[in-house]
Amino acid sequence: xxxxxxxxxxxxxxxxxxxxxxxxxxxxxxxxxxxxxxxxxxxxxxxxxxxxxxxxxxxxxxxxxxxxxxxxxxxxxxxxxxxxxxxxxxxxxxxxxxxxxxxxxxxxxxxxxxxxxxxxxxxxxxxxxxxxxxxxxxxxxxxxxxxxxxxxxxxxxxxxxxxxxxxxxxxxxxxxxxxxxxxxxxxxxxxxxxxxxxxxxxxxxxxxxxxxxxxxxxxxxxxxxxxxxxxxxxxxxxxxxxxxxxxxxxxxxxxxxxxxxxxxxxxxxxxxxxxxxxxxxxxxxxxxxxxxxxxxxxxxxxxxxxxxxxxxxxxxxxxxxxxxxxxxxxxxxxxxxxxxxxxxxxxxxxxxxxxxxxxxxxxxxxxxxxxxxxxxxxxxxxxxxxxxxxxxxxxxxxxxxxxxxxxxxxxxxxxxxxxxxxxxxxxxxxxxxxxxxxxxxxxxxxxxxxxxxxxxxxxxxxxxxxxxxxxxxxxxxxxxxxxxxxx
Length: 487
Prior knowledge:
This protein is α+β, with helices and mostly antiparallel strands. The protein has ten helices and 24 strands. It has helices at about 1-20, 45-50, 60-70, 70-85, 90-95, 105-110, 110-120, 120-135, 135-150, 470, and strands spanning about 160-170, 170-175, 180, 185, 215-220, 220-225, 235-240, 245, 250, 260-265, 270-275, 285-290, 295-305, 310-320, 320-330, 335-345, 345-355, 360-370, 370-380, 385-390, 395-400, 405-410, 410-415, 420. The radius of gyration is 29 Å and the shape is elongated.
């Protein structure tokens, strides 16, 4: 019993770790020099990469660099902000404060247009995050190079929205003219620097198209919130040491996000934690696995911006059986699905839900030494249950319009409200009783499920993997999916 409890605790901890956003452990100073994979970006590539935000105020640039290294959280925060667009001011910051995101991601929620641009251009966001974590000094230098270009072209100057200060020959600082209000610059990188610096496939804000050549426009000013510890006033760029500063401490972002695996081995087992990014599709993914003498567990999440699909899953295995759970949701089509499957020495069972266009369908099944039972029900009113065993096979169902059907031992019956009538092809006489022929199935009612021995598919360590219709409609799992949950 103690061993079972220990394993259960271990597996729950794994699922919690694997579905929780990367945290502040990544803030340790990165090694000197290039720390990424492959070939580092050239100075020209970096200038194209930072061109869309190089003329933003320093603190906003700092927040963007940090948040870009958490692309999965950026997408989650953008989706969350759209769903909670009615929140403003202190109410917004208070609710954001309890979200499981990095401080840099929380800070960007104060600038919805910036967050939306980052989520919409996930390939660019991820490339910027990797460049900042692996070529920090080069990225900071690229920003200063472009500021000098814009200033030399006569397009970067002090105004009622921003104050531009030449702090040294190599450093140009941009701050809000009114310390309490931040204006986000709107400009076209193709013209503002005097030389075109355009990142391939970047979708620029529609307002940038109407900004005249060699000019910087501004959106609506954003009042700086002071009711949190992650807001605008706590961020800055230290151009002399080439680092982003958060609470007077260097902030290096998440150096592990771009495709690394962390592994640990010991006398009690092993653990692996991986993250990855596909530059071709923009897909971001992460997962974790732990195993020891008592069993193993794994969990993972993925987001594909090309299709808009969010997905996550988890599996646990031990001497008592295996349980798997998964969810997927596509906000563009409204389609969603979830499933929980369980198997052990006594048999197997499972539950699945799919939903699209306002219709939700739930199904369940159980198989053991006595036979198989299954049930299905839809939100339109249709439902059915069936069973098969060593001696009998039977099923009953009801259509959305209320007609009832039943089969037993090869015979078919129909009930439209005036009793059961057999099909003309039936060999036995029509059944005329007041209720449908009984089945030897162990399913109880619509959606009933026989309980098998061992660990249950509905109470295993994957807590929060819902199998009910609410899950299929896209409700957030209580499993703490961080960037992948949906309200």
